[in-house]
Amino acid sequence: MKVTPPKWADKFLAWYCNPELLEEIQGDVYELFEKRLEQNTARAKRLFVWDVIRFFRWSTIKRTTTQNNYLNNTIMLGNYFKTGYRNLLKDKVTTTISVLGLSLAVGCAITTFFCIDYFIGMDAFHLNKERIYQVINVVNDNGHHQKYSDVPITLESKLRDIADVEKVTRIEYGNGNMRYEDNVFSEFIHFVDPDFKEIFSFPTKQMEPDALSEKSKIIISDRIAQKYFGQTNPIGKQVSIKFKDDKILAFQIGGVLDKTPPRHSFNPNVIISIDVFKELRPEEYESLSYDTDAIFVMVHDGAGPTAANDILKATVEEQNNVQANKKVISSSLLSYNHVLDINYEIVGSIMGGGHPAGRIALGVTSILLLLLACSNYINISVSSASKRLKEIAMRKVLGGSRGMIMRQFIIENILVCLIAVIIGTFLSYFFLLPGFNMAMPVEIPFSSYNMLNNVLLYAGLLIGLGLLSGLYPALFISKFQPISIFRGSQKFGRKSWLSRILLTFQFVIAFFTIVGSFVFTDASLQLANADWGYTPNDIISTPTVKNSTSEALYNKIVSNSSVQQAAKSFGHIGPYNPLISARYGETTVQTNSYEIDHNYVDVMGLEILEGRPFNEKGDYQKIIINEKLVRKMGWDAPLREHLVIDSTRYDVIGVVKDVVISDYYGGMSPMLFKPLHDKEPNYITFKTQENASMKAMSDLKGYWKELAPDDPFDGFYQAKIMDSFFDENQMNMLIISFLAVVTLIIASIGLYGLVAYNISRRMKEFSIRKVLGANLFYIIKLINKEYMWLLVVALIIGAPFGVYMMNQLIASVYPDTTQMTAYPVIVAILIIMLSFIITVARQVYKVGKANPVNNLRGD
Amino acid sequence: MKGNHIGELEELVLLTVGALFEESYGVSIMEEIERQTGRSLNISAVHSVLKRLEKKGMVKSKMGGATAERGGRRKRIFNLTNLGKKALDESMEVRSQLYNQIPKVSFNIG
Questions:
Q1: Which InterPro entries match (chain B) (predicted)?
Q2: pTM given for the model
């Protein structure tokens, strides 16, 4: 057997070597190889490789030819654009289809990009974001590890002693009725440490240096300033705030925040020094067991969280000693960005953001859309290349290399992509993003928070799209041998496996998104019509103010003729859901807790499944719990069980049906109801006669003005408490359905393009068949045969996949929803089939109408 | 005077090209040098020297016949040009001139 030199080395030589020098060099190394072979084969091979590598030097590397090519190229570049442009115009249907599909997909992609970018770039305006950390506790919630934003208020002093830590702020929520002259509103208050100003970079309009550090100087947002002071300068103005326990304190406006940038996840409205909180509630401020809502830390430049984490670790045991009912597993600093990412996992997180499932779904769908449009384009351009076969062959015969032809096709392709990107940008800027913004509570700007992202998006779209959709057609077309084209034996397109795979892929995506969106819509509709666990209609509720006012108000409400029944409670389902922990044996459970009078169950229409409601005397140390709590405790006979709350034993006397609080995210909450005894109620809830709720509401307003003129009226219809959830739900439905429609359109026009092309190519065949007596039905069968089984395959792959994925998504967002039904899947499939039939039918009709004579004349 | 100056290796290769006459191509030059002087060169070095010489106009080349042992590839045969010959002559002359100027005594001291 003849020994040959190592193939790869030989190829490598041929690849890099200047073709003019290749022959002599190759000849020499071969000759040497042959000579050395007589002595030692392995050594000869080694030396061959060595020679080849030694030849890899500047003087032998290919240059001269590329230089020529390059010159040629720059001259041709203009021509490529010109021919590309002419070709696009020549084939208007194909071009329109390609550009339309691509533009739609690009428009969606740009919009989605900015939406996702908006959420990712959340709070990017905080200059020190990279140095900000939040203290997060991981708590054992019945074996389930749960992250908590609430951490002991006393941790602050420990954190301040750490050398790496530059600044610390606690954030404690509070409420108060703020008053300036005649304006009285209930405001949400952030009690913070003075460092707050330096840690977070909220833009300010005006700021006195001692704001916050001076106890009486508070900071308000621009919105609040408008609300109370209108156009006048609020700085130095005196306001009074009435806190719980009727304590009224006077404050001076020391600073006004400017409009926060649109990308913020939390923006406080009224900021007061935490010293005021200390004054209001000294026991809690000092208490080792009191948890504040959040603690943020800013470390020194270059320092990390390690030192603080060590200290926090040491406090875990201490925390557990003080708080017997909450077992802390770990306590550590999480970076701001990380907290934003996992925000939805953190109980009581002060930052916004929400569940990422929607964003992921959005991102995935728009990438699918882009792929869809690309595969459309690939299919169409490969098919339509047949019209240009002669052009390609001619170029090759005249000395065009494969590379040149590829370049031509890719440039044409980038031209198409450029047009698509421009149209897509317009679509997104004028329709999609404004539409999205109108429907969402946020205002997403048509730009990234980071300039580089804008550039990357467009560069990525142009290059990625251009290469993705253009590379294969270019490779495929440039491969043809001129001789076989001229001879007429070049076959392609008809049985191309790639075009089939792409088409199947498109249909799979179409089935996937459409079935998915139907399943999602179905689930959302089910939620919209789901039982709340009580009937919110005709229920009105109002928070009360302290002391005699609430009793007087209750009496007035009860005596009103349009009121059926009224109840008092501390805590109220929907707007005020205090969380407590209860124990049973060794297990601790976190549950919402409401203290209610004997009417509450009736007024709210809570459904008692087992046991009984509270009686009028007020059952001492008895509780009613909901199904979710029963499930959580795993009780078989809940009426025989009990829970320990604050070392008092409460026996279960009733079980109520699960009740939705304000949304379906995260599923139902466990609830328990205790009798309201000596505690002051903070809500009055009443049920009105049918159709009398409007009148009852205005009466209630009247009573309020009379009894509590100093406090804002916050009464509300119970039926409205889920509004924000339903708005969001409806929005999700809208967006997902929109994307599904776009998918369907793109898939349909792809199919249209392909069928149109195939029919026009086979027009003569059909005409001959018609002349020879084939009927229309037979021809329809001929046309559809090619696509029918692709559709079936796509259906089998796409539909179950869509159902599965969407169910996963739904289950992760709404754990307690009912099971899906078969009907959304069936409807989705019917819709897809119908739109495909319509797509094809138009063209089949064209074939049927066409006079064979016109097609056959001239041959 | 860059064009006329030749280095030591260039001179060696130039001499070999002249000596081998019609049979001077990459491998044969390399082997001849090795045989005559015991210096083993890499073929790529020979090629680059030859290319340099050709650029200076001291050798000219043409493609020769193909042989089987080269996998059917032709050789590039190099020939001395007049300029090359002149350069060699000059260099030899300089050498012998200098050599002849060495006084006899110096040998005795050595």
A1: Metal_resp_DNA-bind_regulator, Tscrpt_reg_PadR_N, WH-like_DNA-bd_sf, WH_DNA-bd_sf
A2: 0.61
